[in-house]
From TrEMBL:
PANTHER family: CLAN MH, FAMILY M20, PEPTIDASE T-LIKE METALLOPEPTIDASE, PEPTIDASE M20 FAMILY MEMBER. Residues 180-280 form the Peptidase M20 dimerisation domain. Pfam families: M20_dimer, Peptidase_M20. GO terms for molecular function: hydrolase activity; metal ion binding. InterPro entries: Amidohydrolase, Bact_exopeptidase_dim_dom, Peptidase_M20, Peptidase_M20_dimer. Mn(2+) binds at residues 99, 101, 134, 160, 354. Keywords: Hydrolase, Manganese, Metal-binding. It comes from the Bacteria. The Mn(2+) ion enhances activity. This is Peptidase M20. Its cofactor is Mn(2+). NCBIfam families: amidohydrolases (TIGR01891).
Amino acid sequence: MFLTNHDIVELTAWRQKLHAMPEISGEEVATAAEVIAFLAETAPDKVLSGLGNTGVAAVFDGAEPGPTVLFRCELDALPIEEISDIPHRSRLSGKGHMCGHDGHTATIAALARGFAKDRPKRGRVVLLFQPAEETGAGAAAVIADPRFAEITPDYAFSLHNLPGLPLGHVWLKEGIANCASRGLKITLTGKTAHASMPETGTSPMRAIAGLMPALTDLSGGTVAGGDLVLATVGHVRLGEPAFGIAPGYAELWVTLRTTTNDQMQALVDAAEQLARQAADAGGLSLETSYHEIFSHCDNHPDAVEKLRAALDAEGVAHEAGEALRASEDFGRFGAVSRSAMFYLGAGEKHPALHNPDYDFPDDLIPIGARILMRTARDLLG
């Protein structure tokens, strides 16, 4: 094992420090500074900061030519109030590391300790600490950054913890690992009126009330059984919180989700048609916009083979598992490299991701680091 007990103790303490100082997508300034300070003692050959806004990349060069292998984690937390009595609970109201990105960051930082002691023999390793995964904007911003050309990988790997799966057990499959998704915001505008004379206005009430079940009815299928089509209403706003006003404005937020990117357009077209019909029937103006756009995550067979070999060599139990309905912006790295993500069990009874009582299991730090280091050594020596 390349990590000493002292390393594990320090990495655990550092992870808990990150947990207490969560920053949401696009605001990861202090977290990035923590990463840069941690990396300083490992003396990377190059550090890129401010990558894709607040991202950090550390490069460890080998002595001989070879492939570039990237290992990616995420810096951002969620706008969720933590409900916990743990000593390292969030110090920031309304923000919390409820997805385990603090643990993923500590796991990738563990690799820096390993490569500080023993550089790869050939090629180079890139440790990417990516911003804004939760909004789907981070990977795209990193790849669009002109400096990404300096570190474009041949292989890219990532992990994500998964509650419900036995602690330390791995799910890894070829092909689709995560679904595509995007947020659709529908705005309907009519005319506000006095509540005593609603007939003098144009209310979007009936339109918005009918759209919610109509959009939900577009859903069908499961990942396990084939193609997924899912429309989930997440937020609705109708008028103002006042008794004296008949509303003239409404918003509906719905998440559209499909197994693949190609299937998304049909769902988008169907949702927009329903919105247009509702607006026309109610005499309302319509605006639509899209947010938090995630591509599906497609695990490359060659990258999966490399991870499976590492799992077998390290004696880690693994199976193919299922594609997850949840989205992951790591999928964008598949367009520039042979990429694969695996899921590392956080425990069968562990609180679910995005729950307010979730906390990353620190026992996963050395397990995840061991798997990824073996993958790097198999590729680069």
